[in-house]
Amino acid sequence: MVMHMVMTKAELHRKWNKVRRETGFRSQFEADLAKDLPESEWLYEPTKIPYRIIRYSTYKPDFVFPRQCFILEAKGRFDHEDRDKITYIRTQYPDLDLRMVFYSNDHITRQVTYGDWCNKMLIPWSVGTVPPSWFNHEPSEKQRQAFYEAMKDVIKT
To answer: Which residues contact 139 (CB under 8 A, 6 or more apart)?
Structure first.
């Protein structure tokens, strides 16, 4: 019987970092392959080539406030996919009033918290509960239009 050892993500990263430090390559496979290539006829990862990913997706907001014309997203974990999704929404609906409530203001990186990320994206945010002042919000005409455009399948004007 063959047993496969499962490595944790942290163990994999330590292994990859060790290979990178010892060989200069991202993987042992790349390092081994480089040994078989003719010298001076290749460059290793000399540049980054930009590309676009275009796909149709949808966003299902957690809470919608029609009178105040804002969307409320509640998040425990706020992972990379969630941040990408919110970034796409903010880019495509710049006037849509989107607000975040986090379970806690955890760190994305050692220096950046969820709140820091929201501040950079100009997204109002809170921890634990919705600030009462949000319920007294009076939307601008642009916010109202963006809200009803985004909610056109749900809310009739």
So the answer is: 68, 69, 70, 97, 147
Q: Record the tokens describing residue 65, joined without a space.
A: 């406030």
Q: Which DSSP symbol is given to 41? A: S
Whose tokens are 């919000």? That residue is 137
Name the fold adopted by 63-150.
Restriction Endonuclease (3.40.91)
pLDDT in tens, 117-141: 999 999 999 999 999 999 999 999 9
Domain limits, the chain: 7-49, 63-150
For the stretch 69-99, pLDDT in tens is 999 999 999 999 999 999 989 998 999 999 9
Predicted model pTM = 0.65
Local confidence band at 24 (pLDDT 50, 70, 90 cut-offs): confident
Picking from 80, 81, 117, the residue whose alpha carbon sits closest to that of residue 100 is: 117
Residues near 90 by Cβ (< 8 Å), separated by ≥ 6? 96, 98, 121, 122, 123
CA distances (Å), origin 150, targets 17, 60, 106, 130, 145: 44, 11, 29, 22, 9
